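ok, trying the design again with the full structure, not the truncated one.
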């Protein structure tokens, strides 16, 4: 899964593709009984900037996942897939594995084998490839399929009744989900699944028939076709899909999310590589505090033991095959492989009622350096063993499901029952989770769920509130809306407010998305990936947790979509606030259509009355408000073209705001770059001035020297600013592993109207500010960390105390520098507009004459 990093790490490293070195982590075995290899973290070393196709970004931004809850048909649901064009460059071929173009014909053949195999297309990848979901089950009449769906709904929506249902106990087919190849260069889950489907399609033994009569097996054949074909971890947008489940910016992730919601698997595997010996979750602490972790651990651990036995039982040895025995992090390690953030597939799945969910890392590396350097015969030997190991894990899981079906379904029902009833979580211990040895206080994480979250729908955050509500609904979180003013927990809330009643089946998901999270810096020394996120703090809407109170009698109605807030005043000039990414997107759209827009003193945009018709279209398209204004504005705002040396997440976020972006990098500039079509430069990664040829450096310096502005983020941005003398300040690097949600204080025009929270990864702050340098934003005093993991370095420097009160964002007439991560992986939507405003301000910095003429 889990990629990882040398220390210190930069967030850009997660988002890129190449892996160069591995470093062992210091992990202490839990027990002496196993002798696992230490888990190693892959470290990505590509310093290149993102260069992803605009078409992929557009596809990702517009695609919706199809509804997979079709109840009008039974099984099989066969469909003949049209062929994909043959691609001899598919990276699977060298490994002797199934290239993407061979999957559709293979699935057609598997469907022809009998009446057990069905194929659905669940969407398209960022690169435009179909995503195939195979269902294997005994044939079902339409009536039988309807009954199954009715039972599924009962389990989710009326869990107390479902717990007593004899029909469910006797007849509900346990849904099981095998997710393959989410990292495109971890191939073999796909091949193992295809092999197994072939066997299941025709096997006539009693055991197989019984299995298929009592379960539905879902196989996401390849979750990442773009990466499978190209031999990359990421999809065509450069996104690590196994980091995207909180944000769901990518179509492949939305498709997986829909499978989780519509199929409601009780058990799932997410097949990855490569850790030798095979790594099988459950994980080390910290464990996410929103799970019903007692139920999850019981089942996940039990299935892990079965998978371990099956994998070890294949008979591969270290001496003969280079295959080490399997390892289970929960049992075998202290820390370093956690289930804290629900950005990973199995962790996200738990919030949809999956009670046994595993990352499985098959053993033998065939990607990256190995792919390029090992002989083909060795690669194929390794790949064949990996297919075998993945197959053993899948078969063991099928045995587990067959043996434990009623108890797995009962535990899923109990997850939803606790949520709906507002019941307390059950802290894990050797008493509450019998059968799992070694549970200690270090494994206990629980939370106090608030009674509700209230999200006001009106006011300046209306666009953000609507976006958040739609995102919650897409995650199958229930949201209601107040039809009149109401009181809760001693406060009055306005009519129209959205309310998330936390007594709901998926309360864990609602809370893990909306809550602040927790500062876990003192819990473990190292975290696998991000430790903080919060839609409540970072997505721009006001989200108020209400700890207690009664909702009975409250005037609340369920909503299925947020109400549109787009509005244009009927007469006069119009004011468009620029504090939300959708407002920036609307502005860019108007500018691209030639509308003459001016900047107001407060940083908003003035759209003339004459452009009302276009403003109405933009308000509708971007769900934004254009109020009447009497201000005429100062400078003209012009359409701007951005050259950007940034991470894939940042590039995607810029395109989400409709910026016209040309990706650049050291290599692109060295190849000779024409700066004449660029208004502003944005640098956070992949552009090293020292590595430029003399000609390229001269051209860059000339561009900046001519008064064009720079927006920089992190150390790379600050270094370029220092080298070119655009802003006098000393960047200070905090702990490179630190990340999370921080409190900030905004104090300048670029950050006007921004939330008082931000996201950091490898935080940077600025000292020794020269004359003319303005503090736009500071880290809050005290401990700025709200949630996440941020420790000082061993010498005491680099911690949150050192950052407290320091400048996090600074500006000069020619540069804006961010020490925060306002576009990180497309996540903190509420912060995006700071970058939008910075780009507009800097693009116009060079046009002093225009500024004066306004
Ligand atoms: Zn992986």
């Amino acid at each position: 899964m889990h990629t990882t990093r040398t220390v210190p790490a930069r967030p850009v490293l997660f988002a890129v593709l190449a892996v160069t070195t591995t470093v062992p982590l210091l992990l202490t075995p839990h027990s002496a009984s196993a002798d696992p290899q230490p888990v190693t973290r892959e470290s990505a070393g590509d310093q290149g900037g993102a260069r992803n196709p605009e078409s992929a970004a557009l596809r990702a931004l517009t695609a919706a996942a199809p509804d997979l809850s079709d109840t009008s048909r039974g099984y099989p649901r066969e469909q003949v897939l049209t062929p994909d064009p043959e691609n001899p460059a598919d990276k699977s071929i060298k490994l002797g594995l199934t290239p993407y173009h061979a999957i559709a014909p293979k699935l057609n053949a598997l469907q022809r084998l009998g009446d057990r195999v069905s194929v659905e297309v669940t969407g398209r990848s960022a690169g435009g490839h179909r995503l195939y979901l195979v269902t294997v089950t005994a044939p079902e009449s339409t009536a039988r399929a309807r009954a199954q769906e009715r039972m599924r709904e009962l389990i989710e929506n009326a869990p107390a009744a479902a717990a007593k249902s004899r029909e469910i106990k006797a007849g509900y087919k346990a849904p099981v989900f095998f997710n393959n190849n989410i990292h495109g260069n971890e191939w073999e889950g796909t091949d193992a699944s295809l092999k197994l489907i072939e066997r299941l399609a025709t096997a006539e033994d009693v055991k197989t028939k019984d299995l298929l009569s009592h379960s539905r097996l879902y196989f996401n054949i390849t979750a990442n076709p773009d990466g499978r074909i190209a031999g990359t971890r990421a999809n065509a947008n450069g996104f690590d899909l196994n980091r995207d489940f909180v944000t769901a910016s990518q179509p492949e992730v939305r498709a997986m999310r829909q499978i989780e919601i519509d199929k409601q698997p009780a058990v799932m595997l997410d097949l990855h590589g490569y850790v030798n010996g095979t790594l099988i979750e459950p994980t080390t602490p910290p464990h996410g505090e929103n799970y019903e972790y007692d139920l999850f651990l019981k089942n996940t651990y039990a299935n892990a033991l079965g998978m371990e036995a099956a994998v070890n039982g294949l008979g591969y040895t270290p001496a003969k095959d280079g295959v080490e025995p399997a390892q289970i992090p929960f049992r075998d390690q202290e820390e370093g492989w956690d289930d804290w953030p629900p950005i990973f597939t199995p962790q996200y799945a738990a919030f949809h009622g999956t009670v046994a969910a595993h990352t499985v890392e098959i053993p033998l590396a065939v990607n990256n350096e190995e792919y390029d350097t090992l002989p083909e015969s060795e690669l194929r030997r390794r790949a064949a063993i990996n297919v075998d190991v993945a197959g053993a894990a899948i078969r063991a899981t099928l045995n587990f499901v067959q043996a434990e079906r009623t108890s797995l379904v009962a535990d899923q029902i109990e997850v939803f029952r606790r949520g709906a009833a507002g019941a307390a979580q059950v802290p894990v211990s050797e008493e509450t989770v019998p059968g799992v040895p070694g549970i200690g206080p270090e494994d206990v994480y629980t939370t106090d769920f608030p009674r509700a979250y209230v999200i006001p729908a009106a006011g300046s955050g209306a666009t953000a509130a609507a976006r958040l509500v739609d995102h919650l609904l897409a995650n199958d979180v229930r949201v209601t809306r107040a039809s009149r003013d109401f009181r809760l927990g001693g406060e009055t809330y306005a009519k129209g407010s959205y309310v998330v009643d936390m007594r709901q089946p998926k309360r864990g998901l609602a809370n893990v998305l909306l809550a602040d999270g927790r500062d876990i810096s003192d819990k473990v020394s190292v975290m696998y990936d991000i430790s903080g996120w919060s839609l409540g703090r970072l997505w721009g809407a006001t989200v108020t947790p209400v700890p207690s109170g009664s909702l009975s009698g409250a005037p609340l109605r369920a909503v299925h979509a947020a109400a549109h807030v787009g509005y244009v005043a009927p007469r006069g000039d119009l004011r468009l606030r620029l504090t939300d990414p959708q407002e920036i997107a609307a502005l860019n759209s108007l500018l691209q259509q030639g509308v003459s827009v001016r900047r107001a003193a407060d940083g908003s945009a003035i759209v003339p009355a004459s452009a009302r018709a276009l403003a109405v279209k933009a308000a509708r398209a971007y769900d934004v408000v254009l109020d009447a204004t009497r201000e005429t504005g100062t400078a003209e705002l012009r359409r701007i073209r951005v050259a950007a040396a940034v991470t894939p997440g940042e590039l995607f976020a810029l395109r989400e705001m409709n910026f016209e972006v040309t990706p650049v990098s050291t290599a692109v500039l060295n190849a000779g770059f024409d700066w004449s079509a660029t208004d502003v430069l944005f640098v956070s990664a992949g552009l090293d001035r020292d590595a430029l040829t003399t000609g390229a450096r001269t051209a860059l310096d000339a561009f900046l020297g001519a008064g064009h502005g720079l927006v920089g983020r992190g150390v790379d941005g600050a270094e370029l600013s220092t080298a070119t003398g655009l802003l006098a300040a000393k960047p200070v690097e905090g702990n490179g592993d630190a990340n999370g949600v921080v409190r900030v204080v905004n104090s300048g025009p670029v950050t006007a109207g921004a939330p008082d929270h931000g996201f950091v990864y490898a935080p940077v702050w600025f000292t020794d500010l020269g004359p003319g340098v303005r503090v736009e934003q500071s880290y809050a005093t005290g401990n700025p960390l709200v949630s996440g993991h941020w420790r000082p370095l061993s010498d005491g420097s680099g911690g949150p105390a050192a950052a407290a009160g320091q400048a996090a964002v600074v500006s000069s007439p020619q540069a804006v520098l961010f020490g925060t991560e306002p576009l990180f992986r497309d996540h903190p939507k509420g912060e995006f507009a700071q970058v939008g405003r910075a780009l507009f301000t800097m693009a116009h910095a060079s046009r002093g004459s225009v500024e004066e003429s306004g």
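Keeping the full-length input from now on. Residues 1-48, 847-854 have pLDDT under 50 and may be disordered.
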